[in-house]
Every structure is written in C-alpha cells, then in structure tokens.
Amino acid sequence: MSDVGGAAGKILATFEDVVGIALPVRVRAWDGSQAGPTDSPARVTFRNRRALRRVLWSPNELGVARAYVSGDLEVDGDIYALLDVPDLVERIGAHRSRETGLRTLARAGGTFVRLGAVGPPPKPPTVEMRGRRGLRHTRARDAASVTHHYDVGNEFYRLFLGPTMVYSCAYWSPGAATLEDAQAAKNEVVCRKLGLRPGMRLLDVGCGWGSMVLHAARHHGVDAVGITLSGEQLELARRRVADAGLSDRVEIRQQDYRELDDAPYDAISSIGMSEHVGVSRLVDYAGILHDHLRPGGRLLNHAIASVKPLPDTPSRAPSFIDRYVFPDGEILPVSAVVDALERGGLEIRDTESLREHYALTLRAWVASLRESYDRAVDLVGAERARTWLLYLAASALGFEYPYRLSVHQVLAVRPDASGASGMARTRDGWYRDDPGHGRDRP
C-alpha cells in the first residue's frame, strides 16, 4: 500500500474494515493518492468526493452501483477480479452480524465525512428506475418494466448477443464451438424436449427477437406464435421472420400472456419469461399455459433460479438489479416453480440444471460487449453501457459457484383424461423419437 495518508489509503482501509477482508484492489483517489497492491489486475478510481457521498447515503450495493454507473467511480482492468473476492458476500453478512457491526459502519461514515463526502444525496443516474407505486405485475407495470430493459436498441443487444439475438442461457454441447452454435443447440434441446413435429402448433411466451420460433419452424416444421411486450423486439422479430420466408408459418404478436385466447397449442416454450411473472402470479401463469395446451401437450419452462428458499418476509431494500436491470423481476427457487406448475394442473416430467452453461454464456456476452464498448456507448450512452457490463460480469460469477444462482429447464405435460402423458419413459426416448428435422442429438 502506498500514500496511505492520502484519500486512497483511507478509502481502502475503510472498505476493508467494513467487509472484514483485505481487498486485492488498487485504489486511486481524486487527490492523486494511490493504495493497494501495485500488481492488482483491478484498479478502482474515485474521481471525486461525490462517489463517497453516494455510498454514504446508500451504504449497500446500490450506493456503489450508483457511483460506478454515474462515472464517479471508474474500474479499469479485470472487472472479474474486482467482483470475485472470495466469500465476500458471506464475510459481509458475518461481519454485520457481530455486535461491532454498527460501530464499524459508523467509523466508515465518519471517515467519509472527514474526506469531504458531505451534502445532500446526489441525484441517481438517469437510467435508474425510481418512484414506482401501486401493485406489482399489473399489465401496465409489467409493460413498463419490459420497456425499461428491452427497448434500449436492437443494435445494442446485437453487439453482445451476436447474430442469433438469443438473450438466455446457451447450451454448450460438445460440438458447440461458438456462442452461435451453443444458442442453436439450446433451441434444439428445447424443441426435442417438447417433441415437436411438422404441423404442430407452438406458442413461445416471451419470444424475444424470435429466435426460438424461427428455429422450430425452420428445423421442425411447426406453425409458431411468439408473444412479447417489447415494441422493439416485435419489430425486429417480424422482420427476421419475413427475411426467413416464414411469414406463413410464424406469427409474432405484441401481447401479454394474460390476453391469450386462441387455445389449444401442441407445445409451449417459456424461456427467460417466468422471472418477470412474480411469485404472486406464478400459479395463475401456469394455469393459463395449462389451459392453452391440448391434452398431452408439453410445456418447457426455462428460468433463472435462486438456490435459497423464499424468505418469510421478502426484503424491500432496493437493489441494483431491481433499479437498473430487471424492475420487478423475481428469481425464485426451482422448487417454487415446480410447485406452481403442479398447482396449475401440469405434471412435471423432468428438470435439468444448466448453471455452468449460463456462466459460459455470460462470459461470452461480457467479452463481446467489452470488444464493442465504444460502440455501445455511442448507441445507448455511458451510463447504460456501464450498467450492462456490471450486470453481465456479476451474473457470470453468480453462476460459476454453487449455492448462488442456477438456471433450470422444467419439462411438464398436460395429462389427458386417462392420465397418460404420451411421452416416452426415458430422456433417450424423447430424442430417439425425433424425426430428424433438427441437429444431432445433444
């Protein structure tokens, strides 16, 4: 550590005191001072005292995120090295549970004040969603949440998603050499689990830019309907369908799942959608999808999952994800999803975790975004570009360790009147029954 008498040394010592661990980070401050390991792959610059003031007014992840997104705090070098401090979350929790926790936070606040971090709370970055009132998951509020996240420019998303424009976990099968290969493999896995055949009718709920319905129509001969709340996704998805010459077999609608009224479908895919539904409406969601399946029809629900049980009293503390990325999003344990699907009348036939696959997917997205970062700033502005880089990098680490985040594909069926599912008894049977329209069996 150098210049320990300057602002940088005091800042680093304060953060280390709060988290109870030495931080492998090089810190620079507005006064020119530096502190921390000189060989650290991650360098953090506090460009002004306002960065500290943001943390002082919100002494949690939201304060640090506001400092970074606003540009008051800069990160150079390896962002993973900064975020991937071993057991950081657990250490913070243990430290705050001690009797000295409040005194530690008081010391930190006193240091920030002595460094000049005084004054009213700074205005949040412009990309932060604030002041939301009323019930969660009404149609209007869900539409606003989707607009906040998805309607920021199709070209921006293309920078890191690549040509497939798939914004969910890929499937890194042995033959998948690129992100494009892995996303095609994921769509194929979904199609085979659903048992798609030529002439079947498929519904894709939360269809994004149309990649799943395009794959299913092109490789499995189905007639497909995709629904989304995003106007920008709708426009591009329809254009992709027309360019593929599939307008007679694929329809893209701007529609809420609660407005569906054209049952039955032979199969339904819900990929990265149920996280937006909310635990209070998940059983209703499952019931609506059940009612739109023919007897014997299959549903595949692909969703991020928490590995912790739902708390008896949900936290109302604002988080970076809720304010900046997925307003009103709810990451539920897979057990809650299975319970909701069963209560909605569906029979669970299979679950599969793709946790490691999502870590690889997110790493690929981060690499692509960093390669095109200047273009991203031109398209959506520096605040939003920083938001997505922080969100994607932190999420990658969240999936790389067990007991943090996971992602599951849950396959369910609507049994017929006799109780039969119409499915093969084994997973191998599902793939063996495929008529050969798709790729090689994964």
UniProtKB/TrEMBL annotation:
InterPro entries: CFA/CMAS, CMAS, MeTfrase_dom, SAM-dependent_MTases_sf
Residue numbers spanned by region Disordered: 117-140, 419-442
Keyword vocabulary terms for this entry: Lipid metabolism, Methyltransferase, S-adenosyl-L-methionine, Transferase
Any single Pfam family the record assigns to this protein: CMAS
Polyketide synthase-like methyltransferase domain ranges (all copies): 156-415
Skewed-composition ranges (Basic and acidic residues): 425-442
Protein name (database record): Cyclopropane-fatty-acyl-phospholipid synthase
